[in-house]
Amino acid sequence: AFSFLRQITTEQPTNLTVCEFCPPAEKCNATSMSPNITLEVALEIAEDLRKNLTVDKTSLSSYRRRLECADDSRPSSKVFGGFALAVLVSLLVITIVLDCPTLTRHLRLCNVRTKKYKDLERS
């Protein structure tokens, strides 16, 4: 049964089915509706409501905002982003600079080994 329909008794001896959202003196379309419906009709109404009220999730602004980066034009955010970039670049440069002596030593050893193998092949 429809929860928004109810039976009320007026001063007259007849019972009227009216919408509880409307003022008692006004008529609405609910007065002609019957609150007694079958299960099949209720399921059809529910399915129709589900189809009409279902929203495509890809058309929601929350879906679009999740896929796009938000622009932040505040000066503080730009300064913080620049500082973070500087820290990352400096860490990368420090790692490479500290690893240079090891890399040169490795390349020298590879070069020496290559010369030894070439000399052994010639003999």
- The global form is elongated
Number of strands: 2
Major sheet attributes: 2 strands, antiparallel
Radius of gyration from the alpha-carbon trace, in angstroms: 40 Å
Order of helices and strands: EEHHH
Low-confidence stretches: 1-16
Strand content: 5-15%
Strand arrangement, major sheet:
1-2
Could you say which structural class the secondary elements and strand pairing correspond to? mainly alpha
Distance between the termini: 103 Å
Rounded average pLDDT: 78
Helix content: 55-70%
Number of domains: 2
Tally of DSSP helical segments:
3
Keywords: Membrane, Transmembrane, Transmembrane helix
How would you explain this protein's 3D organization?
Keywords: Membrane, Transmembrane, Transmembrane helix. Helices cover 57% and strands 8% of the residues. By secondary structure, it is mostly helical. The protein folds into 2 domains: 5-54, no CATH class; 74-122. Strands 1-2 form a two-stranded antiparallel sheet. A hairpin with a 5-residue loop joins strand 1 and strand 2. The model is unreliable at 1-16 (pLDDT under 50).
